[in-house]
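REQUEST FORM: STRUCTURE PREDICTION
Request ID: SP-0412
Submitted by: Lab K.M.
Chain count: 1
Length (residues): 269
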Amino acid sequence: MIRLERVNKSFGRLRVLRDVSLEVQKGEVVCIIGPSGAGKSTLLRCINHLEGIDSGTIYIEGTPVYRFSREGRHVVDPDHRIEALRSQVGMVFQSFNLFPHFTALENVMVAPIHVRREPKDEVRRRALALMTKVGLAEKTDAYPHELSGGQQQRVAIARALAMQPKAMLFDEVTSALDPELIGEVLRVMRQLAAEGMTMLVVTHEMGFAQDVCDRVIFMADGTIVEEGAPRQIFSTPSNVRTRQFLQSILERNTEMGDTSGGLSAGPSR
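STATUS: Completed
RESULT:
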């Protein structure tokens, strides 16, 4: 579904992604973990072309996209094709970015109507179903300021799903939420995973990564340091950087008095 081949990205002299290669299969849930500054969020933004890459190639369903080389010639996708590709790969951010002057339902409806020019009645039916799916059927007429952070984030997920994407990117979607609101967002993500949605998730929720993900990737310094099944990564990581990162999480939990036994880290952008 998604493939990166030796992707590099720098901001000035700061090299954020270093020859990153990655594959995400259809229906697979892949979690990316790692310390602050590892390049995790930038990786997702490059996949959605919110950031252009410096070199390498990104493939969506086996087709090179955005900017790539073909038979020795540099190719740049036109804007209309980039828009179409973005609609196939939905993205949800740490900040909710809802339109404050639109109701929750209108926020979910806006992209299919204005980007895809779909009939309003059809989009409304789909949006109502999505609001029910994320557990907010009773909040369709509420404005963002009338919703909790968890509710706003669930509207943001419904908004991304309204474009009927083939894959979803989640970038630290719970890190701005109060602890009691995190569970309601993770429940929606767990449901999407159970339904077979292809998902690439940057997260500090280690319990979610352990329970839901098919594969866990540990990034540091702009590279993929280690990847494997959750059991292997969390129980017997082979790389010393991975072990140090997970140990720091356990120590932090101990200091905070967390005796639940689950791993959890603070925001790790």
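NOTES: The radius of gyration is 19 Å.
Reviewed by: T.R.
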